[in-house]
Amino acid sequence: MFDVKTVSLEWGGKTLTLETGRIARQADGAVLATYGETVVLCAVTAAKSVKEGQDFFPLTVHYQEKFSAAGRIPGGFFKRERGATEKETLVSRLIDRPVRPLFPEGFYNEINVIAQVLSYDGETEPDIVAMIAASAALTISGVPFMGPIGAARVGFKDGEYQLNPSMAQVAEGRLDLVVAATGNAVMMVESEAKELSEEEMLGAVMFAHAESRKVVNAIIELAEKAAKEPWEVDLSDNTADMKAKLKKLVGKDITAAYKLTDKSARSNALNEVRAKAKAAFADETPQTQMVAIKVTKKLEAEIVRTAILKDGKRIDGRTTTQIRPIESMVGFLPRTHGSALFTRGETQSICTTTLGTKDAEQMIDGLDGLSYQNFMLHYNFPPYSVGEVGRFGAPGRREVGHGKLAWRALHPVLPSKEDFPYTIRVLSDITESNGSSSMATVCGGSLSMMDAGVPLARPVSGIAMGLILEGDDFTVLSDILGDEDHLGDMDFKVAGTSEGITTMQMDIKVAGITQEIMGQALAQAKEGRAHILGEMLKALGEARTELSAHAPRIETISIDKSKIRDIIGTGGKVIREIVATTGAKVDIDDEGIVKISSSDVAQIEAAKAWILGIVEEAEVGKIYKGKVVNIVDFGAFVNFMGGKDGLVHVSEMKNERVEKPTDVVKEGQEVFVKVLEIDPRGKVRLSMRVVDQETGGELEDTRPPREPREPRADRGDRGGDRRPRGGDRDRGPRREGGRDGGRDRGPRRDREEGGNPDHMPAFLKSED
C-alpha cells in the first residue's frame, strides 16, 4: 500500500533517517526525519497559481512542538497546543531564513511549510531535525527550490568542536552555534558564545559546513528515489527594454537621491522617482505599472551597488569601514532601575532595565517540562521609528527574533544567580531606525544594566556588517544602513566584549558566501565593535556599585535543609506571617537558600532576624528581645528569636518579690530576657530581672546566691523491721468516712513550683 523510500546516515554518533511515502501523502512533499528518538514530520504544500497582482514571494514556515512528543499534557486552562511560543517562533525563522534565498527571483507561488515534533527523547534538540526535514520535503516536492541545505549544531569545549551536542553539553561548553548551508556555501548562522575569538568562531562555522554536506548528500539520495517531477515555471525576464527606458528616464534622479545623507529626504526623493516611473506607463495595465515599479527598484540596487563596488562610495558618504556618529546617555529616566539612550546615526534605542525578585521569573512550559528564566529581553519596533503608519500591538516574528539575538549577546556576561540573585528584564524601544536596531539594543541594553548596578563581566557592543557581491568581486561594509541592508547581499551581525564574541548571526540573500568573505567580515567587525565600545564607555565605564533607590534589595542567607519546614510552617503559616508582618518577600529553595527582598532595608532586616531566630539555637548567657505570649500563675512565656519560647519564672521577673506575673507584664509586651538555662529536653529558662528593660543591657545580679542544699542523711537500712506493704499488712482501722473524712490534703502540687498541671503548656509537662 505504501511506497516508502528511506535513506539513513550515521552522523554525530546517532542515526539520521529520512523517510517519505508513508505519511501525509497528499502534500506536495512530506518527510519524516528521525534522529536518535526525536522525530519531526515536515509537510510542504504549494499553490499551483499566483494571485493576480501579487509581486512578492509568500513563503510561510510553521514549527510546532507537540507536548505528547515528550509524554506531557500542556499546562494552563485549555490543555492543548495554542499560539506559537517564543521557541516555536524562533525555530520557524531558523528554517525560513536559509531556504527563502534559494527560490528563484520572480517565483511568487504561495508555499506553506509545516514542521511538527512528534517525538522528543529529551536529548536531541528537534530544531536541527526540523530544518533537515524541511529541506528534504522542499527538495522532493517539485517546486523550484535550489537546495537542498543541510544543518548542524556545534558546541565547543576544551578546544574541541562538538557535533550536535545535547543542551546539557552546550551548557557545559562555550558555544551554541547553528549553521545551515548548501553543499557549496554557508547560508545562515545563529549563535551564542562565551567570548570566543574570531578564529574559533570561523572554525566552528567551517566545521558545521563540512558536517552539513553529509546531510545534503543524504537528501539528494532521497530525492533520486522519491522526488516529484519539477514544476515548469516561466521565469524569463522580459523587462530589458523597460529597464533601458527607465534608466534613461530616472537614472540620474536615482543617483541624486542616493547622495542625500538624510534618510527622510532620501526616501521622499525616491518616492518621487517611483511615481515618475509609474506615470511613464500610465496608459499600460496595472500589472505593467507594477512591473515598472519593480524594475525601478532593481535599477536603484544596481546604481547603489555599482557605486560601492567600483568607487567605494556609500549612500551617506562614509568609507566601507567607517562607523556613524555615536551618542550615549545613561540614567536619564528618573524612576526606572536603569536606563540608557543609545544613538548611532539615525538608529536609536531607549533601553530600560528592571530588577525583580524570584517570583518575577518567566515560567516556560516546554517539551523539557517547566523551567524558569531570570533574564528577559524584549524588543519593540513601533512604526513611527521609520516614519510610517502601521500596525502597533503585540510583537511579531521580527520583534521576537531581534530580541532573542540581543538576549544571546548579553546573556554570556551576566553574573550568576548566587552573585546577583535578581530577575532582570531589559526593554528596548526603538525610536529611530536606519540600520541594525538589534545591535543598538545590545549596546543600549548593556549600558542600562550597568546603570542599574548589574555587575556584568564586561560591557558588550554590537555591529551589523553588509556585503556587495558581484561574481568574484566583493566589498564588506561596516555599520550598514537600512538601504544597504535591503540592496546588499548579506546581513551579518556580530556582538561581543573586548575579550571575544558573544553572538554572531548571518543571513545571506545569495547562494552563500565563502570562508574568505566571512573571515574578512569578522576581522572588520572586530575593529568596528572596539570603536563602538569605546564610544559607549564615555557614558558609563563600569557598572554602578549601588542599586537604584527604587529597586528591591535582596539578601541571601543559607540555612540547614532540616530547618526549611520550620520557616515555612504548617500549611505555610509561619512564612506567611513573616511576610505579612515585616512586609518583605521571602523565597526558599530546596537547598536551604533563603532570599529576602524589599525596597526597604528595615523590612529585610526584620525578616532576616525572624528567620535566623527560627533556625538558630538559643545561647546560654545571651540577651534577646522577645514578646510575652502567655501568662500563667507561675510566670510568663516569652517568644524570642522568632520561633523560640522560654519561661520567665515569677521569681526571675524582678529582684523584689512579685505576687502575680500580671503585676509586671502583660500579653504582647516586648521585654528583654537573658537565657539562664536550656535543659536536655530543650526547655528554656529565662530571666528579666538581670536585664535593663529600657536598654537591653545586662545588670549586676544583686540577689545573694542560694545556699547549696545539704545532702540528705543516710536513712540506713530501711528493710528488716519494716512491715510488709502487701495484702497481709495490718493497716488498722480506717478513718471514719474513708478518704473524704480524713485529713484535707488540698490540691496536688505540681512539679513546677506554684504550678497547676492543667494550665501548663504541653511542652513543659513531664514526659512520663
UniProtKB/TrEMBL annotation:
It is found in: Cytoplasm. The keyword RNA-binding applies. InterPro entries: ExoRNase_PH_dom1 (IPR001247), ExoRNase_PH_dom2 (IPR015847), ExoRNase_PH_dom2_sf (IPR036345), KH_dom (IPR004087), KH_dom_type_1 (IPR004088), KH_dom_type_1_sf (IPR036612), NA-bd_OB-fold (IPR012340), PNPase (IPR012162). GO terms for molecular function: 3'-5'-RNA exonuclease activity; magnesium ion binding; polyribonucleotide nucleotidyltransferase activity; RNA binding. Residues 688-768 are annotated as: Disordered. One of its GO terms (biological process) is mRNA catabolic process. Its main location: cytoplasm. Its cofactor is Mg(2+). NCBIfam families: polynuc_phos, PRK11824.1. This is Polyribonucleotide nucleotidyltransferase. It comes from the Bacteria. Pfam families: KH_1 (PF00013), PNPase (PF03726), RNase_PH (PF01138), RNase_PH_C (PF03725), S1 (PF00575). GO terms for cellular component: cytosol. Involved in mRNA degradation. Catalyzes the phosphorolysis of single-stranded polyribonucleotides processively in the 3'- to 5'-direction. Mg(2+) binds at D485, D491. Residues 621-689 form the S1 motif domain. It comes from Novosphingobium sediminicola. Its EC number is 2.7.7.8. Residues 700-756 have a biased composition (Basic and acidic residues). It catalyses: RNA(n+1) + phosphate = RNA(n) + a ribonucleoside 5'-diphosphate. Keywords: Cytoplasm, Magnesium, Metal-binding, Nucleotidyltransferase, RNA-binding, Transferase. Belongs to the polyribonucleotide nucleotidyltransferase family.
